[in-house]
Structure formats: structure tokens, C-alpha cells
Amino acid sequence: MDFTFIAVCIAVVLALALGARGLEHFLPETRKVTPARRVSIVGICAAIATVLHVFDFPVPFLAPGFYKLDFSELPVLLCGFYLGPSATVACEGVKIILKLLLKGTSTAYVGDFANFVVGCSFVIPATLWYHVHKSRHSAVIGLVLGTVSMTILGTAFNAFYLLPKFAELYQMPLEAIIAMGSEIWPGIHNVGTFVMACVAPLNLLKGIMVSVLTLLLYKKVARPLFGMHR
Questions:
Q1: CB 200 within 8 A of CB 194
Q2: 60, 99, 145, 208: most buried, per Cβ within 10 A?
């Protein structure tokens, strides 16, 4: 067991949770709900997100098979648009816990940690901007900011921490991972070119697809999903 990895996971989770909660103090007043209703909404959205996460799928024309695409951030965004940024962190965390209970891990927990962190880098900026202005226009801007944030931060996090740690814990040479990428994109020859050719486009694709679905579904889904708790 890698205690350094566990310590990093705990530190990052706490930083994201406390950071999102602290940022809410600078927002206009968020929607008032009872603690029980808040827990219920987060739980329902996390359960839906878990189902979507379990049915992730590879995108072999973009990245090696251990990188998966899923739409689990869609219900997380719905939850965040309704309750605020801190709810997205809770929803992401519950989603990962439920996924591990149902399916376990195939990436020595590095992929699960990555999904949480990269997901938060998308949903926190998106919901934060939305709650500053609360309009469809601000939702669009927030989703664009979230997509850009996920693409940049997710790519950098993969390059500097996730890929080396995955190679270490999964006991796979980093060169072998790079070689898997070069089979898709011949120009890949190091970690930097790997993340730019594989990770960045995958994050960008996910951000665009989830953003479009969120804009199409929010008004239709939010009322029946959240209204039934009143």
C-alpha cells in the first residue's frame, strides 16, 4: 500500500472540498434547502452519476484503452447548478465511492482519483460562474470555463503526477504507456506529447459533450428531479 498516494488523495480531496465551500461565501445567496433535502439531492445525483460512470467506454482513436470516457459529470453539474459548487465535490466523492463498491478498480485507484480530481476541475468552475450570475448565458460561459479548466488542469495533472504514479502502482514502465500512445499517434515520444495528443483531446471532447447535454437537459430534468423533494 502506497501511503504517500493515500496522503495525496486525502489532501487533494480536503482542499477541493474546503476550497469549494469557502468560495461559496463570496457568491450571491445560494438556494436554501434543509440539510436532509441537500443530502437527498446529492445522493440521488451521485447514484445516477455512478451508473453513468460504471458504463464508461474507451475511445481507441484518441487514447489508450485505460483512458475511458463517461458522462457521469452530467448529474453532478445538475446538482451543482441547483445547490452550489460544494455539492459537486460531495457528489463526485460519493460517485467514486459507490463505483469502487460496485466495480472495484482496474487502475490501482489512480484512475478513480483522476476521475474525481479532473471531474472537479470541470464542475467547480462551471457551477461557480453560474451562481455568480444565474442565467442561461452564464451557464454557457461557466461550462466553457469548466471545459477549458478540465482540459488544461487535467492534462497537466496527468503529465506531472497521474501517469508516473499509475506506472509505479500498476507496475508498468512509463515507456510502455508512451508506446501505447505512439501506436495511435506516431508523433508521441514522451510524456508531454502523450498528454497533449491523447489526454487533452479526450478531456476536451468530454467537456463539450457533457456541456451540450447539460444545456439541453437541465430545464427538463431539474424540475422533476429536484421538485419531488419539496
A1: no
A2: 99
Please provide the size of the chain in residues.
Answer: 230
Q: Give the separation between CA 209 and CA 49, rounded to whole angstroms.
A: 15
Q: How many Å separate Cα 175 from the centre of its chain?
A: 27
Residue-wise pLDDT for 16-34, tens only, equals 999 999 988 888 776 678 8
d(CA 9, CA 16): 11
Q: By three-state DSSP, how is residue 198 classified?
A: helix
Across the chain, the runs of DSSP E, i.e. the strands, are 57-58, 68-69
Give CA angle at 110 (109, 115), nearest 5°.
100
Report pTM: 0.92
User: pLDDT averaged over the chain?
Assistant: 91
Provide long-range contacts, Cβ within 8 A and 24+ apart, for 185-194. Answer: 191/159, 191/163, 191/164, 192/159, 194/159, 194/163
User: Rounded distance, CA 228 to CA 230, Å?
Assistant: 6
- What is the distance between the alpha carbons of residues 141 and 139, in angstroms, rounded to a whole number? 5
* Structural contact between residues 112 and 66, judged by C-beta atoms closer than 8 angstroms: no
